[in-house]
Amino acid sequence: MATLLERVRAGDALDDSPVIDAHAHMGQWFAFHVPDGTAAGMIRTMDRMGVKACVASGHAGIGPDFVLGNDEVARGAESFPGRIFGYIVVNPNYSAEEMRAELERCWATGHFVGIKFHASMHSYRTDGERYAPAWEFANERGLPVLSHDGAANFEEPARNYPNAKLLIAHAISSQDMLDAATALALRRPNVYLDICGSPLIYGALEQAVDKVGAERILFGTDLPFIDPRPQVGRVAFAKISEADKLRILGENALALLRLEGRLG
């Protein structure tokens, strides 16, 4: 049987492996050209690579309108069951009551499997108290929380909400981020690394696997923000075992995001 690297070199879709994109978006964005950010367009791109499913947060949600973005992702998930799942995006600039209501509303649809913070776009730290309702929601249900905020601001939530699963976005996009993320993951068993990122630091994935183990690392692409294909190559060409590549590409997401038996 051909290896993942051989199949990627041949341009084959990895459609017999559980490849799951744990960091996707959906819709248009003000500062990027997104050729086709629709759910249907994302599925076409995923099929070319052999990605079984993605977990998306709406661009509108991480920007000005979290309700609009969550609704867009829910419609995408409804149109493509088992292929698209969602992160509930919350905005800490709204009241705690509005945050709780949005979490409950989205969770009741069955289309969402985690929560997304965008600390930089919403100008608020991941460990700030206004995120407490979302942390409590995740902790009660053992849900993953994906956030763009650097490892330092994950330390306190990781300690205070031990049942939540903290997923550090773009964790290996620079040497500093890699060092901080792996150090935190070694201190806190509920911290995981997302490899999504346009900067590709040579040898970063190998370092991450060596420091924390492949079981703590998830594949992500930023689809449809950027072309996701280099991210597949980043894993396929890494100097790690075939078993670790499969864990990173999908097996870890199946477990962490509870997608076993739900893929379409």
Verbal overview:
This protein has 264 residues and is an alpha/beta fold. 41% of the residues lie in helices and 16% in strands. It has 11 helices and 8 strands. Strands 1-2-3-4-5-6-7-8 form an 8-stranded parallel sheet. Helix 5 (96-107) packs parallel to helix 6 (132-141). The two termini are 25 Å apart. The model has no long low-confidence stretch (mean pLDDT 95).
Rounded to the nearest angstrom, the radius of gyration is 17 Å
- What is the N-to-C succession of helices and strands? HEHEHHEHEHEHEHEHEHH
Number of distinct beta strands: 8
The total count of helices amounts to 11
Q: Tell me the structural class.
A: alpha/beta
Q: Which regions are unreliable across 5 or more consecutive residues at pLDDT < 50?
A: none
Instruction: Give the overall form.
Output: globular
Helix content class: 40-55%
User: Between the first and last Cα atoms, what is the distance in angstroms?
Assistant: 25 Å
Mind describing the biggest β-sheet? 8 strands, parallel
- Biggest β-sheet: strands ordered side by side in the sheet: 1-2-3-4-5-6-7-8
Proportion of residues in extended strands: 15-25%
Mean pLDDT: 95
Q: Keywords for this structure?
A:
single chain, 264 residues, globular
Tell me briefly what this model is.
The chain has 264 residues and is α/β, with parallel strands linked by helices.
